[in-house]
Amino acid sequence: RLELEHGEIHLESADPATHRRISFESFDYSIDAAALFERARSARPSEMEQARLAELMALGEAGGSAEWTPAQVQAHYHRRLAIPFAPFVFAALGVPLGLRRSQSARSWGVLVCVGLVAGYYMLLSFGQYLGESGRMPALLALWLPNLCFALASLPLLRRAQHGIA
Fold first, then answer.
1. CA distance 100 to 115
2. C-alpha–C-alpha distance, residues 143 and 148, integer Å
3. How far apart are CA 23 and CA 66, in angstroms?
4. Burial of 21 by CB count in 10 Å (0-12 exposed, 13-18 middle, 19+ buried)?
5. Which H or E run includes 11?
6. CB-based contacts of 53: which residues, under 8 Å, 6+ apart?
7. Helix, strand or coil for residue 75?
8. What is the pLDDT of residues 53-84, one digit of tens each?
9. Cβ pair 67, 42 in contact under 8 A
């Protein structure tokens, strides 16, 4: 319950010429706390903690809601697991690219770096779409960027190991 004294409430509408002012000596306002807690329970999967996502995944289809689907829950769960592995994949790509000896290869480094990050982000976004829409299992869809970049780094690492620039 909120008690206000000696105040005003200003109401604006879409029409700028219309402005309402309500003055009061005393104003009592009751806050419905149950509605606040209900709203917190119906958070979107992107706002949920990892433990809550795992709990909803264990419920399966019964964990769905009017605002989100079980596929969306799985997609956000696997996205949070896959993203921390991106630095390892980028390191596996970056080390062999950084070992190149020619001057021209180094001048392209910034451009290659931006291209790799953009490509990873596009694959991750596409995987998020595929996972949330249910067109592909979320596990595969969200780990796809890491898998593609890891596979691309294997020949580069092999060449770097044998000293071929």
1. 18
2. 9
3. 40
4. exposed
5. strand 2-12
6. 45, 73, 76, 77, 80
7. helix
8. 888 888 875 555 667 888 888 999 999 999 99
9. yes
